[in-house]
Amino acid sequence: MRNLLLAVITTTLISGIATGKDNASFLQTVKFQPYGFIRNYAIYDSRATKSLTEDLFFFMPLDKEIKNGTDVNAVGSYNFQALTTRLGLNITGYKIKNLGIDAKIEGDFYCLNSTKNTATFRMRLAYFQLNRDFTKGKYHTSLKLTIGQTWHPLADDKPYGINLESGTPFTPFNRSPQIRLTASINNSICLTGSILQQMQYRSMGPQKSTNQYQRHSIPEFYGGISFKASGITAKTGIDILSIRPHYGYNENGKKYNEQITTISPFIYIQYEYKSLKINAKTVLSEAGEHMQLNSGYAITGKKEDGISNEYTPIRSSVSFLSVKYGRKLQIMGMIGYHKTLGTSKPIENPKGNIYFSGNGFKEINSMLRFTPTVVYNLGKFQIGLEYNYTMVEYGKSLSKKLIPQDCHWIGNHRLILCTKFEF
Fold first, then answer.
1. Are 102 and 94 in contact (CB under 8 A)?
2. Is the link from the previous residue into 169 a cis peptide, with omega within 30 of 0?
């Protein structure tokens, strides 16, 4: 299968990107490495949940819904799917003088339309990288320019586990088209700057989820720095997003003049020693719904023109601590915590004028998740079992700063069995 896939991809690339005399030199210098896996999930939930992709991508258990004295959401369910099976291709080794060019394209099967229950092949990653090394004395610097769709810098580092959501909503989850410049000094200090454009993961607004709010504003910006030494990796950075929920002109021909800018800093640390890995991240998020976080923003009032709105972001703190130990037999797990911090400005109408994540609920005050996991690796075959306990603190009302009040806890027991064969 690997040889067949390699032959098909190579033939396609030859016809598409190299012609005539360039064919031979291109094939001699470039290495094509196909990869992928077939992955199966079997899951059980003790309660109805807010989830995506045939309930494989899990966010949280649903709140109580009492009908005739019975909580209709207190019902268990199970599922088994081969979704998220993945195919990819790495292209390496191409050079133009001192400039190296690498590329990656990756896709998987995903349930883009859950009502049709059909697995659709979609693009996950598609980018190329320009690499240049510089050496002067004892200092070695490498520059890397990444252009295309890849992981958002805030979502690069994830907790250890086998669940599809990779720790969401306790850490950002986002892949975006971007231009990212990375400068590494002696493989210890790394500076990163990115400009990003929304695609699949988008902000909410009056037209629900769309990237038009950003397209009528300015690109998202990220800047960060990381440090590596003696098994320790430390990162910090800041993400700035500016959108226009209303843009252009209204039905009376008046032009909107509104914009909301949000700032989300984070800290990440990782430690590795032999077969032990520990990592942790905390993010102070503003309007993080495009990161698959339980967040959004709200209208605080009208501007002097009578049509444009003033906005304030909903802030939240999301954190995780994760551990992995072992190689053939691995023990791993995560503790995740979310806390709603509300808005800096009061809202006149807490029941309306709020644009919030479609994968969450504005009545959530805090969340807690615990995921002990056991994984057995036998060559290219892997089998894993994960227990996921998620508790959500739902509120019955909202304060004028959108902090839930009169709260109660709801819990869900989730059991995940995952099998994966890599090739």
1. yes
2. yes
Query: Cβ(240)–Cβ(261) under 8 Å?
Result: yes
What is the C-alpha separation between 423 and 191, in angstroms, rounded?
34
Task: Look up residue 8 and give its amino acid.
Answer: V
Q: In the numeric block, which tokens belong to residue 311?
A: 């906005």
205 alpha-carbon distance from chain centroid: 20
CA proximity to 113, closest of 52, 40, 199: 52
Closest CA to 320 of 358, 285, 262, 269: 269
**Residue 206: closest CA among 243, 176, 169:** 243
C-alpha–C-alpha distance, residues 63 and 65, integer Å? 6
β-pair partners for 50: 60
In whole angstroms, how large is the CA radius of gyration of the chain?
Answer: 23
Chain-centroid distance, C-alpha 12: 31
pLDDT, tens digit, 9 for 90 and up, residues 118-131: 788 899 999 999 99
pLDDT digit string (tens) for 288-344?
A: 999 999 999 999 999 999 999 999 999 999 999 999 999 999 999 999 999 999 999
What tokens appear for 191 in the block?
């500076």
To the nearest 10 degrees (0 to 180), the angle between helices 22-29 and 2-17 is 140
Of 173, 253, 250, 260, give the one whose Cα is nearest residue 213: 260
Strand pairing partners for 376?
329, 383
403 closest CA partner among 353, 356, 362 = 362
Residue 420 three-state SS = strand
Q: What is the DSSP string of 164-233?
A: TTTTTTSS---EEEEEEEEEEETTTEEEEEEEE--SSS----TTSS-THHHHTS--EEEEEEEEEETTEE
Half-sphere CA count of 346, side-chain side, radius 13 A: 3
Residue 263: which H helix or E strand, with range? Answer: strand 260-273
Hey, what amino acid is at 10? T
Output the pLDDT for position 116: 63
Residue 2 backbone class (left: φ over 0; alpha: ψ -120 to 50; beta: rest): alpha
CA neighbor of 49 nearest in space, from 283, 387, 395, 392:
392
What tokens does 347 get? 């809202």
Please name the amino acid found at residue 216.
H
Task: Give residue for tokens 């709260």.
Answer: 407
